[in-house]
Design brief:
There is one protein chain. The chain has about 325 residues and is mainly α. It contains 14 helices and four strands. Strand 2 and strand 3 form a beta hairpin. It starts with a helix and ends with a helix.
Length: about 325
């Protein structure tokens, strides 16, 4: 049987978190030197707001990757759920609170679809989520006629636009999600089983863990969190389109990898993911402040992903 003590070997990855934290600190110092606007209050708040979307999607990837999978559809699920919320609220006249539940519902259903395909049919997560990424994005375009939707009510905009003092409500909400995720990983059987499945799926199955059910629950949770991200991004824009969150899955996976989440599964820590999110957002923000071309930004982000995953692979080889 998998005991909590044994799974701590999977959870513990302090060296990775320390490396990520050191990289974040150095990055902040360098950007503060090369750009006089980096430490301005407006820019720091902007970094936190921009990080809120990727922060939620990085939680999705953390759960999925630790379980030994991958979810390439998170950006498309955000687009689908937020677009349908806008469609029902603006076009069909549904109240704002109903729209919020519609957004969460579409996210949950999309995640459940991924979970069922991965767990019941045993399809590779990469193939499943690559396919559903295209399906969900296509449905978002079709059901909205590829048109932008604006004019959402305050009940939806609240999460994306309101502040508590100088701190955006969205940032506080995302921080709350990280605390909740930490609790799930650290103090529940669901978190324990997630690490166990990612560490050794056969041993987990022989230990009596319902692997199919847990995997399905993980992808469903990922979809639900994408619905939350859809509400935040729609609130920030006071509207939505089928284009939102395009390519965000790349940043989310990169953030998880930078934060020490092993791409092989079974290892990592949610707080490492949060550090990875801040690293990614500081990189993007710094490149924008320095006027780096958006095309070069794509190149640099790609290199960051390769380096982060490469470090993880080297670490796996050394521990083998």
């Amino acid at each position: 049987m998998f005991s909590k003590k044994k799974v701590q070997t999977f959870i513990g990855n302090n060296s990775s978190q320390l490396t990520a934290a050191t990289a974040l600190l150095l990055l902040i110092i360098i950007l503060g030197i090369v750009s006089k606007n980096f430490f301005s209050t407006k820019n720091l708040i902007n970094i936190c707001l921009q990080a809120s979307i990727i922060g939620v999607l990085a939680i999705c990837e953390t759960f999925v990757i630790i379980s030994g999978g991958i979810d390439l559809s998170v950006g498309a699920v955000v687009a689908l759920s937020s677009s349908m919320m806008g469609q029902f609220v603006v076009k069909l006249g549904f109240p704002g609170m109903a729209g919020i539940f519609i957004c969460l519902g579409f996210g949950l259903i999309a995640g459940l679809m991924n979970g069922l395909l991965v767990s019941l049919i045993n399809m590779p997560p990469f193939v499943v989520t690559l396919g559903t990424m295209t399906i969900f994005r296509g449905l978002a375009y079709e059901w909205t006629n590829a048109a932008a939707i604006y004019g959402l009510p305050d009940s939806i905009n609240f999460l994306g636009q309101k502040y508590l003092g100088i701190v955006p409500v969205a940032v506080l909400a995302v921080l709350g999600l990280y605390i909740l995720s930490w609790f799930l990983f650290k103090h529940t059987r669901f978190g324990l089983y997630t690490y166990s499945i990612g560490g050794n799926v056969m041993a987990a199955r022989l230990s009596g863990i319902n692997v199919k059910l847990v995997k399905c629950a993980i992808y469903t949770l990922s979809g639900l969190l994408c619905g939350v991200a859809g509400i935040i991004i729609a609130g920030r824009m006071n509207g939505t389109t089928a284009l939102v969150a395009s390519g965000s899955e790349t940043d989310a996976i990169a953030a998880a990898a930078i934060g020490g989440i092993s791409m092989a599964g079974g290892r990592g820590n949610i707080w490492g993911t949060l550090i990875g999110v801040l690293v990614m957002q500081c990189i993007r923000n710094g490149m924008n402040l320095l006027g780096v071309s958006s095309y070069y930004q794509m190149v640099i982000i790609g290199l960051v992903i390769i380096i982060a995953v490469g470090i993880d692979c080297i670490r796996q080889l050394r521990s083998a």
